[in-house]
Amino acid sequence: MRQLGVFLGFTACCLLPAAHSFAQPKPDDKNIVITPKKPGDPDRFDESKFIIIRPNGKTPSLITQPTTPVAPAQPATNTLAVPLPGTPKLDADMVFDYWFVAAVDGQRIGYVQWGAKKAKKNERELLVGVKYQNFTVSRFGQIVSQWGEESTVENLTGDILITGMRQGIGKEQALVLSGVVEGKTLKVTGDGAAKGASDTPWPEGVVGCAREPVLFKEKRLKAGESFDYPAYIGVLNRVVKMTVTLEAEESLALWPKDPARKLLRYVSKMEPVGNFRLPPATTWVDAETFEPLKMEFDFPGFGGKVTFLRTTKESATAAVMRPIELFNAQSIRLDREIPGIHRGSAVVYKVSAPKDEDIGSLFPADSRQSIKNLDAKAKTFELHVAAVRGPVRGAGAMPAPGKEFTASNYFINWDNDGVKGHSAAAVKGLPATASDWDKAAAVERWVNRNMKAFEFSQAMATADNVAKTLTGDCTEYAMLGAAMCRSVGVPSRTVLGLVYAPAKDGKPFLGYHMWFEVFAEGQWLPLDATLGGGGVGPGHLKIADHSWHDEKTFAPLLPVLRVLSAKPAVSVGKVEP
Questions:
Q1: Which of 149, 455, 500, 502 could share a disulfide with 166, CB 3.0–4.6 Å?
Q2: pLDDT tens digits for 160-179?
Q3: What are 132's strand-pairing partners?
């Protein structure tokens, strides 16, 4: 129905309250995450050993997550040659257990498991529903495992009592949020640094993991009819409206050598979140059992059509033979090279965004970039981008930033020995009269020189975790740089955007990238620790910035998904060296 874990591409529970006739939580009844390292390899964690303690404090996660091995590369195929799911042998307490192989344009990327199990709490019967996703992809040739889980505890009438979300974000690190429904509010708690996560409004009738597949049978729509339901998206920590429409009944063969069967084709749409709207998803269900058999949707983060096809557990969890390369999907080709762009002064880019409804807001305007010659009908505009390498003389002072740009939060968490120790080392030797810009530039140099490796196995590691490992990609460089600046009193925020990257064939890329900005000399000024250039040139195109204040989800990444969905084409106009 909805795109299972669709936000995890860029990529829990606690006690039930007394309001539901359950015991009040005890001090030691906490959501616990265990992240052991792999035996004999102290530098790698084993995500199959992540354990979430369930409502009674003892029951482990419904699903034991196997790690996905990666076999030697094999030729890609255009079809999913997987067997029929058959009739699964369910345990006595298992309500349903669906396994889907996941693929992009016919190329396997991993699997999704969706199940529900009966449970009891103080003699009260409950259902625990879980969706688990495990994808294996490649980023610049490095194999990356992306995994996440959402779960709900529901009563037998489908009311959600507890929500849970886990998302792998870095080495030995997962983002974990739990929620307890209290009236019209979901009381959200986080593990470790995520404590204090924001509560969220909770309307009536929110549908959980256990009840969701039953809706097809409950509604029994006729062709052209629709129904709405509210769904909780854990990685965004908010409830959104889903609209499901039965388009038609059709006869299709989903598996090789399987005869055609009668299927019902539904299309589901999620309401926009801000300016971002997910592409619609299509679900095929068996016309007799109403069980979901296939789901399909376009997802720009993976560069094509994502398919979930029901199969056996063994087939779904088989090794990913040829991981897709995300950079090919998450980059934009330019028409020509711009020699020395990161040392240049300005570039005019000509942008076409045929898939966006409001192209004027696709890229923000600030002191270093502006939109000109906008043609809303043709969906084209010019993006003028200039270099900024330090405070600009004569520039008018901007409003002073709020406390959210200096505070320690879940992702930019600087109030710890690791970050503060690195910050002290970065500014050591600066004179007592050093300006905020001097301190920020020193931080950029330190991060650039001391990060041990530019590797891509992490999704969105927090600053304290990066301070320990000193590894990661641009997101880790940016998070650590922003945190170190805050620890020496310089306001900061991260920036999401595009960066110019050369290619061997002469047609460079704009790749999705993160850097950071600091507030100094009355101005917001950019720095990029991956380059260490004391500022940025016109090869950095800004999409959005964020303080990450009170944010324990990936909602700040939505502007990037919006640009991906817009399928922009970019060419080079005027270049000023």
A1: 149
A2: 999 998 877 655 667 788 89
A3: 113, 149
**Is the Cβ–Cβ distance between 293 and 285 less than 8 Å?**
yes
Beta bridge partners of 120: 125
Closest CA to 321 of 11, 8, 83, 69: 69
Sign of the C-alpha dihedral computed for residues 442, 446, 449 and 455 taken in this order: negative
Residue 375 C-alpha from the chain's centroid: 32
The CATH topology of domain 332-389+404-576 is C8orf32 fold (3.10.620)
Distance from C-alpha of 92 to C-alpha of 30, rounded to nearest angstrom: 28
- Cβ neighbours of residue 166 under 8 Å, at least 6 residues apart? 12, 33, 50, 52, 148, 149, 150, 174, 175, 176
pLDDT digits (tens, 9 = 90+) for 466-482: 999 998 888 899 999 99
Cα–Cα distance for residue pair 128/151, rounded to 1 Å: 7
Q: Which residue reads 């324990």 in tokens? A: 552
- Any idea of the CA torsion for 518, 522, 524, 529, to the nearest 10 degrees? -30
Position 400 scores a pLDDT of 93
What is the reported pLDDT for 96?
95
Q: Of 5, 567, 557, nearest to 331 (Cα)?
A: 567
Largest CA distance in the chain: 79
Residue 88 pLDDT class (50, 70, 90 cuts): confident
pLDDT band, very low/low/confident/very high, at 24 (cuts 50, 70, 90): very low
Residues in the chain: 577
| Encoded tokens for 306 | 């994502």
Cα 555-557-562 angle, rounded to 5 deg: 105
Residue 281, H or E segment = strand 281-286
End-to-end CA distance of the chain: 51
Mean pLDDT computed over 38-63: 31
Tokens of 251: 């006869």
Comparing C-alpha atoms, which of 259, 253, 257 is closest to residue 284? 253
**Buried residues in 72-101 as b, exposed as e (16+ CB within 10 A):** eeeeeeeebebeebeeeeeeeeebbbbbbb
Domain residue limits, the chain: 6-326, 332-389+404-576
Section 260-273 average pLDDT = 92
Whether pTM exceeds 0.70: no
Strand 185-190 relative to strand 200-201: parallel, antiparallel, unpaired? antiparallel
Quick one: which of 470, 445, 419 has its CA closest to 528?
445
